[in-house]
Design goal:
With about 350 residues, the protein is an alpha+beta fold. The chain folds into 2 domains: about 5-180, Formiminotransferase-cyclodeaminase, Chain B, domain 1; about 185-340, 2-Layer Sandwich (Alpha-Beta Plaits), CATH 3.30.70. About 35% of the residues lie in helices and about 25% in strands. It has 11 helices and 13 strands. The chain has helices at about 20-30, 60-75, 105-120, 140-145, 150-155, 195-205, 255-270, 285-300, 310-320, 330, 335-340, and strands at about 5-10, 15, 35-45, 50-55, 90-100, 125-130, 175-180, 185-190, 210-215, 220-225, 230-235, 240-250, 275-280. Strand 9 and strand 10 form a beta hairpin. Helix 1 (about 20-30) packs antiparallel against helix 2, helix 6 packs across helix 7 and helix 8 packs across helix 9. The longest helix is centred in the N-terminal third of the chain and has 19 residues, at about 105-120. It starts with 6 loop residues before the first strand and ends with a helix.
Length: about 350
């Protein structure tokens, strides 16, 4: 597909998933900026988190991101916030993703301008991550977020965790915000037919790239994970009344939803745990569904169809994308959402 000019995507995660008025206020802030198209809103009351996806002309997207962070700081009080999802601020993380006709370096420059402006004008402590990171130990989001909001004020006193922009002391109301350029990420959560978070943790430990530690006669031993470019944690998701393996697929070309789904099934079976289905938080690239759909057709010995819709339908069924909550490909597939918005 071709675009009508440079397109930048922004997928901020806000630490509010229960108050519709607050969520709408943030969405309205994005809508107020001409040239930025709000593509999707994904809200979880249990996680107390909302993910908004918008895209458009790079300058407009950065302005919409600033206005959204500003509004989130006004309506979210982190001293009263709680939920199962790790977080450090009202706007927890604000990634920028160059989609069409712009380079990573151009996006990095914009991310740093945005971070500096938010730090200066809104007095929010800003950390740059992923491709925008200023140090290797600050590249991965889990490393920055370790300790979460409750312990972050103390963490910021360490020289290696001084913010890139903004106040050196944590604002208790707004917390801190992480900003940076990353690749397209697929947030993929697999629900298990159990309430036992231990089962979800067991699978997450073994599937994620960082792996886990186990005791051996030689001491504590690091065991590498099964799938590269995958982060995972286990938790109980009250929204669906089940334990979940919550995953971030950092590069879906290396570890796709299909690979994550098959590996989770393989790990769950010896535990006597059934995999119910999954949810995609935010949007998913079309190629992820085409791969999963083709897998099911070829496994059944059938010739691949020319109609992509058949492959998409097969993928939805195989991955259980509509078993946990409704999945409409016209709303959830990145390329389809961009097309509906008139951006490609």
């Amino acid at each position: 597909m071709t675009s009508k000019g440079p397109i930048l995507e922004c997928v901020p995660n806000f630490s509010e998933g229960r108050d519709p008025q607050k969520i709408q206020a943030i969405a309205d802030a994005i809508h107020s900026v001409s040239g930025a198209q709000l593509l999707h809103i994904d809200t979880s009351p249990a996680a107390n988190r909302t993910v908004m996806t918008f895209a458009g002309e790079p300058g407009a997207v950065c302005e919409a991101a600033f206005q959204a962070v500003k509004k989130a700081a006004e309506v979210i009080d982190m001293t009263k916030q709680e939920g199962v999802h790790p977080r450090i601020g009202a706007t927890d993380v604000c990634p920028l993703i160059p989609l069409y006709d712009m380079t990573v370096d151009q996006a990095i420059a914009l991310s740093r301008q945005l971070g500096e402006r938010i730090g200066r004008e809104l007095n929010i402590s800003i950390y740059l991550y992923e491709q925008s990171a200023t140090a290797e130990h600050r590249r991965a989001l889990p490393d920055i977020r370790k300790g979460q909001y409750e312990k972050f004020a103390e963490k910021m006193k360490l020289a290696e965790w001084k913010p890139d922009y903004g106040p050196l002391e944590l604002s208790l109301q707004t917390g801190a915000t992480v900003i940076g350029v990353r690749d397209v990420l697929v947030a993929f959560n697999i629900s298990l037919k159990t309430n036992d978070v231990n089962a979800a943790n067991y699978i997450a430990d073994r599937i994620r790239e960082r792996g886990y530690y186990e005791q051996s006669p030689q001491g504590r031993l690091k065991v590498p994970g099964l799938l590269p470019k995958l982060r995972a944690i286990g938790w109980y998701m009250a929204d669906f009344q089940s334990a979940q393996v919550s995953m971030n697929l950092l590069d879906y070309r290396i570890t796709s939803p299909l690979k994550a789904w098959e590996a989770t099934n393989a790990l769950a079976q010896p535990l006597g745990v059934e995999v119910i289905g999954c949810e995609v938080v935010g949007l998913i690239p079309e190629t992820c569904l085409l791969e999963a759909g083709a897998f099911t057709w070829l496994r059944e010995g059938k010739e691949l169809p020319h109609d992509k819709e058949l492959l998409v339908h097969a993928a939805i069924e195989h991955l259980g994308l509509n078993r946990v909550k409704p999945f409409d490909p016209q709303e959830k597939v990145l390329e389809y959402a961009l097309k509906r918005a008139g951006l490609i």
